[in-house]
Amino acid sequence: MKPLSLRLAALVVSIGRVLAGSRAFQPNLSAARLDRRSWVFDTDRNRQMIWPNRQIRYCFEDDDAADALRTPLEEADKLWHRTGLGSEFTIAEVGRDECRDHRQDRLLVRWSGDDGAMATTVGLPSADSTLRRPTNDDPEKRPKMVLTTSVHMGMLDQVINFAHELGHAWGLYHEHQNPNFWSSGTISEAKGGTVFGPENHNNWKCENLKDYEEKVNNGGGEPVHNPGYDSGFGPRLGPQDLCRDYTYAADNKFTAADYLPMPASRGVGGSDGKTGDDVDWDSIMLCE
Hints:
By secondary structure, the chain is α/β, with parallel strands linked by helices. The chain is about 20% helix and about 10% strand. The protein folds into 2 domains: about 50-170, Collagenase (Catalytic Domain), CATH 3.40.390; about 175-285, no CATH class. It contains 7 helices and 9 strands; from the N terminus they run H-H-E-E-E-H-E-H-E-E-E-E-H-H-H-E.
């Protein structure tokens, strides 16, 4: 079995087969069409919610972003609908004035250039989220989607990459981060699955990640430790724990957080299965 970080990068998704979904979003779809299709935020336990009226209202940060991103983003939306997303789910571009006046409820779309990164707020922050507190005047604290026009990352296709990010905006996580798929033992949050992890043919190769040397070896410097350790909160964590613990990796902005299993409390899976047969290998939400 190929290492996970290589296997995901090598997946080629046929546009005609791309599908991911959830009963939380599409309650009228049959179980057969949704099984294995989702790892979605838990609306009862997290600070996220579904977009009002199932519509993502968004604006572009500036004219350059609009010129570079508008057409492929619209095509990405069409791709979702061609592959099963219900017609009641829509996206609507709004003016920057509306984005400024309602920033906690509007998605700001930012262009990171022709060789930048991609990242998207998952779902819409709910009332108790720090991203929605009226007293917070930090313009960065808001729902955001960062897109690059590069075709040298993700699925190597601009429209499919944008569709992946739209999936996050709707509320979908990476399906491979479902803890049911990961082997128990060395990986935090794993639930004994037979698909990913060191105990499954050693197919988790953290050292293949592009920022491994910078984050894990810390440029040859001192090991990174849990910031709360000195205050008595949590165990002391060494650099290798960045490859084993999703929260620790995310806190340190290490790309392993795009692959490692998330805490089970964060999401709801389309099924409780733990084998390769329970993974939808055609889903667009498998790849970063």
